[in-house]
Amino acid sequence: MGRGLAVIAVLVGGGIVVGLLATARPPHQPIATRPQEPPPPTREEHLREEPLPEWLSRLVSVAQPKLPSGEGDWLTEHPEDGQSLAQHRVDCKPVVGRAVYLIATSELEQDEAARAVIERLEPLLAAHFQLPVKRLPALSAAVAGKSERPRESGRQWLTTDILEALEQVRPADAAAVMAITTVDLYPDPAWNFVFGQASYDDRVGVMSLARTGDLQTEPTLVLERSYATSMHEIGHMFQLLHCVAWECPMNGCNHQQEADSRPLEPCPHCLAKLMLATGLDPKQRWTELRAAFEAAGLVRGVKEIDRELAASQ
Ligand SMILES: [Zn+2]
Ligand SMILES: [Zn+2]
Which of 69, 203, 204, 235 is the most exposed place for a label (fewest CB within 10 A)? Predict the structure, then answer.
């Protein structure tokens, strides 16, 4: 009886443990050698490889594939399949309106620093979506806070109350309506909180400034986070589902650290979806958004656009 040695590698808790295993085999029996077949592509790889228009595919060189999700991260808690370009083409409804509307809740209107955030958001969102951004009169706190619940940190409002109220005030030319409040939000009694929520079909959404930072001492951080959340939610209103292929502002996020680690610029595939949804010209968008990032002091956004511009040449 001959003896052979096989090396086995086992994945244990994320680390590779290599062990030696003695196996018995009859003498003179050839060891079967079969060429190793490559593993089939994962869903994420498949999405990343979906063809893009030629010049847009150059952006792949500066895009970061989605990093593995850790404990407590969105995809660990809420596994999702993502959305291919082909699927978005099926899901995407033509943009019926030609403006994005922002609407503050009435308690925000009393807060000068919070009002300033919305004013500074407008040119950023207008450049990102390449659509005019308009304002609606404030939404009453009595309506928005119909199902208020107390929390240790203060109070929370139910997102679905606000989304329902927005459907009643949506103007005919609205491509999207986004409410902004200073009160923390919950989407369902079972959840602790949400940064924001949107309805894909009704093109309405809401976000809160409650977890964006200190309005007085860190206004630029608050602006950056508010921009990231509002453009994510408005992206949903253009039928973009969460991105699982790349590090992207359309990634779902479960906590602030995860939200802050997302880039400000969409991945190539989500940019292609936005182009389909709004008809935007990406080169014009880069020019205007770079200027808006610079004016707002969002240095990270300027750097990301410079990388995209260099890769697209
Ligand atoms: Zn989302
Ligand atoms: Zn993406």
Answer: 69
Start-end of H helices in 146-281: 159-169, 219-237, 256-261, 268-278
Q: 116: which 2 tokens?
A: 């300033």
- For this structure, is 233 an active site residue? yes
Structure token digits, residue 246: 């790349």
**Tokens coding 217:** 């001492």
CA of 131 to the centre of ligand 1 (A): 21
Alpha-carbon gap, residue 222 to 176, rounded angstroms? 22
- What is the CB-side half-sphere exposure of residue 67 using CA atoms within 13 A? 11
The single residue of 107, 224, 233, 265 carrying the catalytic annotation is: 233
Nearest ligand to the CA atom of 266: 2
**Domain boundaries, given as residue ranges, for the chain:** 48-92+242-313, 94-238
Q: Ion ligand 2 — residues with CB under 5 Å?
A: 243, 246, 248, 250, 267, 270
The reported pTM is: 0.86
Per residue of the chain (313 residues), give pLDDT as tens.
333 333 333 333 333 333 333 334 444 555 566 667 888 889 999 999 999 988 899 999 999 999 999 999 999 999 999 999 999 999 998 777 789 999 999 999 999 999 999 999 999 999 999 999 999 999 999 999 999 999 887 999 999 999 999 999 999 999 999 999 999 999 999 999 999 999 988 999 999 999 999 999 999 999 999 999 999 999 999 999 999 999 999 999 999 999 999 999 999 999 999 999 999 999 999 999 999 999 999 999 999 999 999 999 8
Specify the fold of 94-238. Collagenase (Catalytic Domain) (3.40.390)
| Strands of the sheet with 149-151, listed across from one edge | 149-151, 154-158, 184-186
